[in-house]
Amino acid sequence: MNKLNVAVIGMGVMGQSHARIYSELPHVNLVAVHDINQEHAENMAEQFQTTAVHNLEELLKDENVHAVSICTSDDQHFEVACKACDYHKHILIEKPLADNVEDAQGIIDKVKETGVKMMVGHTLRWDPRYYHAKQAVAAGKIGEPVHLHSRRNNSYQNGRRLKGRTSVVMFLGVHDLDAIEWITGDKIVEVSAVEVRKRLKEFDTADAIITTLKFESGTIGSYETSWVLPDNHVELDAKLDITGTDGVINIDILDQSIRVFEKDHKITFPDTMYGVDLYGTQTGIMKEELSTFVNNVLNDKEFPISVEEALRAVKVVRSIEQSLETGQPVKVN
Ligand SMILES: NC(=O)c1ccc[n+]([C@@H]2O[C@H](COP(=O)([O-])OP(=O)(O)OC[C@H]3O[C@@H](n4cnc5c(N)ncnc54)[C@H](O)[C@@H]3O)[C@@H](O)[C@H]2O)c1
Question: Ligand 1 mean position to 123 CA, how many Å?
């Protein structure tokens, strides 16, 4: 096989990003899209010049479909992923693998039973800044990590858009909690979290969560995540600071290395990394992630993130949610 035929399931914000990238990548045919909202699926099919298939089973039965991208909401991963396994489709599934540990483990069991290849879209694994941090720690450039701080804060618009269907730490935190363990090569063994509810009360969800982290090696850390950044701020503000015995790593994506001072006294920081339109084609981190999926399926290679690591990230997130529920520190097992 020298071309992968892919269908995208769930045509929201991420599904559209996947569909656009697949339609531009070599070695891929975007053969179908699917969404529970059929009218929306039709519009998307027209936009990406492909076919909308309204019955999921019919889409999965089609032998012309080799792989699927699952871009449904966090609470809609399990059933779709298990069905895709039943029909032997390779899977790129958006993070988090599932919104609870049982479903995440269930998907992994199904993947192993059916022998399909599955990659979980933990985007930071393809972010050059986080990749460099991983290389620097592994090469001993900062000595042994002593303490760290990380954050991922998103806009109030995004918090409202998701309407409490998932928690802020499941939606955003799962990225960094995976990245922190991957970069340090250490395990988070205990979490203690607090939350605040002021702006998203109507959706019965936390605005922000702050967690202290204890690691197997004795390293300590703190993690902050929010989805109530006011609309006059940036859409995404993320940071990672690791202090080691011999050096420090600082990642700060706030201003994207470009500041545009606009005529109405507005300052903007256009995305330079994630999904960047360059001469009419999308380039950046998402493209790298999807390219890895396609190339590694076609060439039968391992993915940079294992399914067990993706499960582990869900476990850490669930431990943080349990700490919020009980008001106590929780051991991560
Ligand atoms: N990697 C990243 O940086 C990143 C960023 C944002 C979101 N995500 C993840 O991507 C996934 C999708 O997020 P989003 O922001 O695009 O959500 P969204 O709400 O914009 O889109 C979800 C789409 O899936 C459809 N859908 C829901 N249930 C379905 C089902 N059972 N079958 C078919 N279609 C269904 C909805 O109609 C909607 O069009 C989530 O898991 C989210 O956590 C990842």
Answer: 15
Domain 4-121: which CATH number of 3.40.50.2000, 3.30.428.10, 3.40.50.720, 3.65.10.10 = 3.40.50.720
Domain 125-273+312-331 falls in which CATH fold? Dihydrodipicolinate Reductase; domain 2 (3.30.360)
The angle at the Cα of 126, spanning 14 to 161, to the nearest 5 degrees, equals 25
Q: What's the whole-model pTM score?
A: 0.97
**Axis crossing angle, helix 174-184 with helix 307-326, rounded to the nearest 10:** 120
Ligand 1 atom 39, closest CA: 12
Q: Write out the residue limits of the CATH 3.30.360.10 domain(s) in the chain.
A: 125-273+312-331
What whole-number percentage of the chain has pLDDT above 70?
A: 100
pLDDT digit string, tens, across residues 265-319: 889 999 999 999 999 999 999 999 999 999 999 999 999 999 999 999 999 999 9
Distance CA 38, CA 36 (A): 6
Name every protein residue with a CB atom under 6 angstroms from any ligand 1 atom.
9-15, 34-37, 40, 71-74, 76, 80, 94-95, 121, 123, 171
Residue type, 215: F
Closest Cα to atom 28, ligand 1: which residue? 72
What pLDDT, on the 0 to 100 scale, is given for residue 35? 98
Among 54, 72, 286, 317, the mutation site with the greatest number of ligand 1 atoms within 8 A of its Cβ is 72
Instruction: Return phi, psi of residue 176, to 5°.
Output: -75, -35
In the chain, which residues fall in CATH 3.40.50.720? 4-121
Give the tens place of pLDDT for each residue, 146-160: 999 999 999 999 999
To which H or E segment does residue 323 belong?
helix 307-326
